[in-house]
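User: I want to check something. If I give you two sequences, will you return the structure for each one separately, not as a complex?

Assistant: Yes, each is folded on its own. Here is the first sequence with its structure:
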Amino acid sequence: MLNLLNLIISQDGSTAGGGSLLGLLLPFILLFAFFYFFIILPQQRRDKKHKEMLKTLKKGDYVVTSAGIYGTVSKVEENTVVLKLNENVLVKFDKSAIQSILRKKEEK
């Protein structure tokens, strides 16, 4: 049995099932790089852009929420926004629910 093991090891200088560490890790490294550059990084950029948009939110902006509700910003607080849907309807939303600003209030 020991002679058979020595014969297998001595044929090419490596063990029968072995390989280089880089050869084993290369597919995982490439997979991680793919996920990072094509999934994680673009999502981080979108999140940063969304946070910057929420910082510029002010009274009079016409916005749409993530639920598809359109309204005009009536009041901006630290974490919430009050939207005016029509003359008599005011609705309070979490600031993160604002999906996009459709029309900025024109400054004069």
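And separately, the second sequence with its own structure:
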Amino acid sequence: MILKVLFWFFFGIIIYAYVGYTIILLVIASVKKLLQLRRHQVQDDFLPEVTLLVPAYNEAGFVIRKVNNTLELNYPKEKLKIIWIIDGTTDDSYELLCRYPEITVMHEKERRGKIHAMNRGMKAVNSPIVVFTDANTMLNKDALREITRLFADSKTGCVTGEKRISESEMQKAVDAGEGLYWRYESLIKRLESETGSVMGAVGEIFAIRTGLYHEIKEDTLLDDFTISLMIARQGFRIKYAPHAVGTETASLSISEEIKRKIRIAIGGLQTLTRLTGLLNPFKNCFLTFKYISHKVLRWTVVPFAFPLVFFLNLIIVLTPYNTRLYTVLFISQCIFYLFALAGRLLHDVRIRIKALFAPYYLFVMNYAIITGFFRFIKGNYSVKWQKARRV
């Protein structure tokens, strides 16, 4: 029956994208560890000169806290340069930053977007390593040391840190869902790093070899993803530093989180059309495998597979070809969507059992990708990003 074939095809893609791929990475990483294959070079005392680059727009509410955070980092002061690029800002960010002589402030009156600011800021970087971070992201004291130690390996071209969402014991749906999702993503990043390269960096905290940077188009939406994968395409590894932590608060509301996710989805699709070389398995087979498994499927097939699986299951249950297995699967899906609905109705209620909001966040994430897909097709998006408000 063709309906059953389609059902298992799309159901299999969902399971593979969220579970199967992770298991495959876990097996490969375990085999490598068992065979004691050569580990990448790491030196705790490798402390090259570093530039911390902070592109920001109207972040006056975070400036003082962020500056104090960076000045307290456990890294030799004579080897650390801090640059802020705040083009087009209309608040008092510039005045606040000028209070700190330790910081270089680059400011132009015209706002031309984050990518223009980054391209301009990179021209002022003369250190071998540059670390990108967001103004609203707080770094742990040893973040730079944890990152630079991985650059002791000459094959490492990019290092991504660990993004965390600040958590409290009692959390709302958006807080809990986002935090759980990033824990899951961190597991995948660790496994990808242990098996070669991570599939993209997180913009909150990542670093590259300065010499590998190439200016990217100013209409690029996902700068972190694009920059890091362009480096991977050059034959260098993207490594993961789990103890280099960048912490930020959750989105203020689910609508703000949806806005952010839609932007990411559009940027992901834009990247697919520009970095087509990553889809060529003959150039780097394993990199292509990771790229398709971790990113391409989630941005193109998986979001549409969820409703297809539900309706295909419903049709099968209503036909004479139904069996107990399909009934159980349909009931399970109904329970999943009921949990998602409960998360929507209780999204402002604080709760200890954070896992209850996982279905809600997963639903929201895939809804945002579908919305972003159609906006990308129509060209209905802006390069100038209005950042999501956070708690």
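Because they were folded independently, the notes below concern the second chain alone. The first strand starts at residue 50 and ends at 55. The radius of gyration is 22 Å.
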